[in-house]
Amino acid sequence: MMPSLGTVLWLLVTGWLSFLARVVPQMTAAPATLATGVVALLLFTAGLHALGRWTYAPRRPDLPAAWPWRWTLATLALIALLFVSGLSAVGLFRSTLWLARELPMHSA
Questions:
Q1: Residue 17, in any domain of the structure
Q2: Does residue 47 lie within any of the structural domains?
Q3: 95 belongs to a structural domain
């Protein structure tokens, strides 16, 4: 028996909750890995700010004279959002493909 489209959509939308409930208690975080991630994020942020300061030239008098940190952090948030949305799109595609392969095919 093939599940309904509503069941498939419901599992696509909410299936990650059961996955998180099962996997998160088993996760461990190595301090060295966390430290590497924090250092990489700080270096990337500093480099992004340096690039902004180097390339920024105000064209109107109402703009700030120097590249503000707020713009750097907003750009960093946008980059992180794009990264996460790309990962989510790939994950959704893989999950959909996996579900499509698992569903029984019926013949007429």
A1: no
A2: yes
A3: yes
Residue-wise pLDDT tens digits, 85-98: 999 999 999 988 88
Question: pLDDT tens across 53-83, in order?
Answer: 999 988 888 888 899 999 999 999 999 999 9
Number of H helices, E strands in the chain: 3, 0
Number of domains in the chain: 1
- 12 falls within a domain: no
Residue type, 1: M
Instruction: State the CB neighbour count (10 A cutoff) for residue 68.
Output: 15
Query: Is the confidence at residue 50, as pLDDT, over 70?
Result: yes
**Given phi > 0 = left and psi -120 to 50 = alpha, else beta, which region is 82?**
alpha
Q: Give the span between the Cα atoms of 54 and 71, in whole angstroms.
A: 14
